[in-house]
Amino acid sequence: MKRFKEEPNASNSNEISDMEEYTGYVLQTETDAKPSRRILRNTLNSITRLLHESEEKEPSNLMMLLNKSTGFYGVLEFDNDQVPPLHREKIPNCWSLVAVTLTAISLALPEIANSHVKGLLAGLLKARKATRRVWTDVEVYCKWLQIDLQKMARKGETSQKILQWLGDEAAKIVIQFKRSKDGSLDHSLCNFIAASSMYRISQTILLHCNEQENWPIDEELFEFISTIIADLLCACFTNVPRVITMKCHDDAIEKREDSIRIAAQLLGRSKKILKMLKSANFPT
């Protein structure tokens, strides 16, 4: 115990400072008990190791996608109030549903290099959290609710006609659901929600393109959609610091250790993302 009572020298002052910072996060069996230097040192080393390991797993494809972001512009651009509603009900929405819908539209565009499409998919693979049923079809089969997304492109149709076609197909699904008697079934409800999203987003993009002096070429439209997706993801990632803080302050003792490990891994993997958000002056 003597070595712990000696005055710290310059070489270990940083370590002691770090240990004092993490003292509040160490598991304690008694409220008034203070953890030993050994426990603190082991905890600090464990957290540092997790951070370094997680930093090596930072998603490069996702970073490339996020770099397209210009701010929160896309958060407001994916749904236009001028699009006439198909029904009076307010449909639940989330960023993952919007992202997979926009991705489906981008896959249907003609004259887009396969490398661009793969890059967009690879970036989103690291970001998606939900909407798994629709996402699997888009990612693996290039389909949206059993509709071949690249069929129209192969036929040589224009992006304008493809957007209108997607909106029309989505509207049919919504109308059919509203008329059916088994609308409470989970599968039908999922299709209804996905179709409602597709209808509104495809019509919103059509409105945007029609407002331009010239209809954008396919590459420009693909970049427009990619930027909206990047803006949505950046807006979501502004919540990461709060999530990390909440994980570190889990009140349940039996969950504290796992929560701090998860927080350390999340911090390591999102370090570059958080740095990018800070340099771009995104609120976090």
Descriptive tags:
disordered N terminus, about 280 residues, 15 helices, mainly alpha
Polypeptide structure, described:
This protein is mostly helical. The protein is built from 15 helices and two strands. The protein has helices at 2-5, 13-22, 37-55, 60-66, 73-77, 95-108, 114-125, 132-141, 151-154, 159-179, 186-211, 218-237, 240-248, 253-269, 271-279; strands at residues 143-144, 147-148. Strands 1-2 form a two-stranded antiparallel sheet. Strand 1 (143-144) and strand 2 form a beta hairpin. Helix 2 (13-22) packs across helix 3 (37-55) and helix 6 packs across helix 11 (186-211). The model is unreliable at 1-8 and 25-33 (pLDDT under 50).
Task: Chart the SSEs and their pairings.
Blueprint (H helix, E strand, L loop, with lengths): L1 H4 L7 H10 L14 H19 L4 H7 L6 H5 L17 H14 L5 H12 L6 H10 L1 E2 L2 E2 L2 H4 L4 H21 L6 H26 L6 H20 L2 H9 L4 H17 L1 H9 L5
Antiparallel strand pairs: 1-2
